[in-house]
Amino acid sequence: MKKLLEMGISRRGVLGAGLATAGVLAMPSILRAQDRSIKVGVYGGYFKDSFDKNIFPEFTKASGIAVESIAEPTGEAWLVQLQQAARANQAPADLSMMSQVAMLKGQSTELWTPLDTAKLKNADNLLDRFVNKYPDGRIAGIGAVAWYITLVTNTDAYPEAPDSWAAFWDPANADKLGLLALVSNSFLLEVTAKTFMGGTNALDTEEGLLEAFEKLAEVKPNVRLWYRDEAQFEQSLKSGEIPMGQYYHDVTGLAAADGHPVRSTFPKEGGILDSGCWALSKASQKAEEAHVFIDYMSQPEIQALMSRKVGTAPTIKRELLDLTDEEFDAVSSDIDPIIPRYDLYTTKADWLNQKWTELIVG
To answer: 22 vs 42, which has greater pLDDT?
Structure first.
């Protein structure tokens, strides 16, 4: 950690030189530094707390740009808020960490200001799958972090960890599950297809999707809570009131490190690998600050710091990181992941939501 802090301090001079040319040169530099700020939306709870404690202060030290963090709601509620605000030329947050489905839906209304790679010297560090592009090739978002949704359990209630997503269907787990409430952020259709139907390619047809819905409906007697509020399930998992479910690997790891009786398990079928992009609202007036922020967050040492302190999987190339094998394994897995079918949640969103309500949560 001391090494990382020292590197952050040395970066301050480099970033400061860039800001001096990017800012309004007529203003005294000390006033520019004081006035520079950015509102950044991140997911709430442990996730936001970890960024506030470990990441944002280091960025401010290095850049002189103050960060006001905004807690985003789960699902697409934040996307709707950003879209509505943008129509009034307002930005509840300048930059937001957005899911891949939200990124695609935001593209349809040109919500995201295209990013300039000439101002992102660290953009080449990213894996291609974490660069979100408009159909014409403009960059809509840059991978912030990746994360896994895994099978989580209360260790008091389950001394032995389950090894398969099939545990959700086990009659022994009646009324014990907490599952995400939205089809587009639970990815339970993909879990069903990978566990019982040979893989997510089974979802290519409407017939396959209906088969997955029917199989997933069999899990309903085991569900105590379909949750939208992450904090609600998190507390119930810790207390053992709802001792099993799907949740975020990073948050669960942080809770376990704090002494709570919870564990995260990568099932044999793989964890669900999702990711968030830094996306700039078209209503924001902070494009310069946003580029400085994204470039900073794309540095190998900062991606490694986030893995260590926030528990997220990096979005940059493995060979650039100084993470040990143990540290990398703590935030990722060698088991082939379940990759969400983001395409379905844009091309068949209305149909999927209707069937989800009719067959699963209705």
So the answer is: 42
Q: Are residues 326 and 340 in the same domain?
A: no
Length of the chain: 362
Per-residue pLDDT band for 45 (boundaries 50, 70, 90) equals confident
Kindly report the three-state secondary structure assignment for every residue of 112-180: ECCECHHHCCCHHHECHHHEEECCCCCEEEEEEEEEEEEEEEECCCCCCCCCCHHHHHCHHHCCCEEEE
Extended beta strands in the chain, E state: 37-43, 66-72, 95-99, 131-133, 139-154, 177-180, 223-227, 244-248, 262-265, 272-280
Whether 86 and 59 map to the same domain: the answer is yes
At 74, the pLDDT band (50, 70, 90 cuts) reads low
Query: What CATH number has the domain bearing residue 9?
Result: 3.40.190.10
Q: Which domain holds residue 342?
A: 148-273+335-361
Number of domains in the chain: 2
Q: Range with the lowest mean pLDDT among 64-78, 104-118, 224-238?
A: 64-78
90 and 181, same domain (yes or no): no
For the four alpha carbons of 343, 311, 182 and 72, in that order, the dihedral sign comes to negative
Residues 261 and 301 in one domain: no
**Residues 353, 315 within the same domain:** no
Rounded Cα gap, residues 228 and 73, in angstroms? 8
- Same domain membership, residue 355 and residue 251: yes
The structure tokens listed for 119 are 């101002």
**The pairing of beta strand 272-280 with beta strand 37-43:** unpaired
pLDDT surpasses 70 at 33: no
What are 160-190's pLDDT values in tens digits? 999 999 999 999 999 999 999 999 889 999 9
| Residues 156 and 138 placed together within one structural domain of the fold | no
User: How far is the CA of 136 from the CAs of 114, 132, 200, in angstroms?
Assistant: 11, 11, 27
Tell me the percentage of the chain whose pLDDT exceeds 90.
75
